[in-house]
Amino acid sequence: MRRRLDLLGLLPFLAYVLVFLGVPAVAVAVGAFQTDTGNWTLANLTAAVGDPYLNAFVVSIETSALTAVIGAVVGLAIAFAVSASPAGGVLRQVVSTASGVLAYFAGVPLAFAFIATVGSQGIVPKWLVSLGVDMSGFSLFGFLGITLVYVYFQVPLMVLVIFPALEGLRPQWQEAAANLGATRWQYWRTVGGPLLLPPFLGALMLLFANAFAAYATAAALTNGVIPLVPIQIASLMSGNVAVGQENLGNALGLGMILIVGLALAGYALMQRRTARWLR
Questions:
Q1: Between vectors from CA 174 to CA 172 and to CA 176, what angle results, nearest 5°?
Q2: Which of 154, 185, 195, 240 is most enclosed, with most CB atoms within 10 A?
Q3: Is residue 120 domain-resident?
């Protein structure tokens, strides 16, 4: 009886997932194989894996992978330093709260904040130029700028995701290793490192999916100059590239769904492995 009640409580969530995720995903998948007149075709998929859209996938994957690696490494270092502080302390509360806010601060407000801060006429470049620093080679509206902005919200997301795994490492394990004569390096190489590897890889995949699917910030910052897949899809759907190319946009969207789905599946797999020792 209780199990039926639990399932009944899941119905609103399942309905939400079906309406806002399931139905749009099916519509995108069907549209990717149709012409504008409703006939079945593979032309959209063929065009999606050719230039210039193939280059958009390459750039998006490179950007997502780079920012995911940087965000994962920096976020792990911050979370590791914070985990050494007393539980319930001010430092933990401040970092956790700040990470929760910064991880979801994106879109047009984030783009405006970076333009005002590190744009060509921003506060930081003007200050550095006054100190004699040459800023002519830096542009916020190129690949380096997008990478910088993405890392801004990737790092706090990594802190939020990896922190429970760090807290799951029992102090008794390190004490037991020390009692057996193991050094700190040996403990991390044989115990702590292998235990943290699955959650770290899972977080890396989550960060990759997060960056790959990001749209509003890049669109507001670059105005479509950098050929990212979400920006290409928006251009096709709005008719800015060619009228009647919505199903080509669906084909690109299907490619995004597959790539992000694989990344999230890897994240879920790593989370299952992590749950065994976090209980």
A1: 65
A2: 154
A3: yes
The sign of the torsion formed by the CA atoms of 226, 227, 233, 235 equals: positive
Domain count, the chain: 1
Buried b or exposed e, range 6-32, using 16+ CB within 10 angstroms: eeeeeeeeeeeeeeeeeeeeeebeebb
Per-residue pLDDT of the chain (279 residues), as tens digits, is 566 666 777 788 888 888 888 998 999 999 999 988 888 989 999 999 988 899 999 999 999 999 999 999 999 999 999 988 877 778 888 988 899 888 888 778 888 888 888 877 778 888 888 888 777 777 788 888 889 999 999 999 999 999 988 888 888 888 888 888 888 899 889 888 888 999 999 999 999 999 999 888 888 887 767 889 999 988 888 765 555 688 899 999 999 999 999 999 999 888 887 776 666
Residue 226 lies in a domain: yes
How many whole angstroms separate alpha carbon 27 and alpha carbon 19?
11
Place of tokens 């490192």: 193
Domain carrying residue 215: 52-278
How far is residue 31's CA from residue 26's CA, in Å, rounded to a whole number?
8
The verdict on residue 12 lying in a domain is no
Q: For residue 162, tell me if it sits in a domain.
A: yes
The domain that holds 101 is classified in CATH as 1.10.3720.10
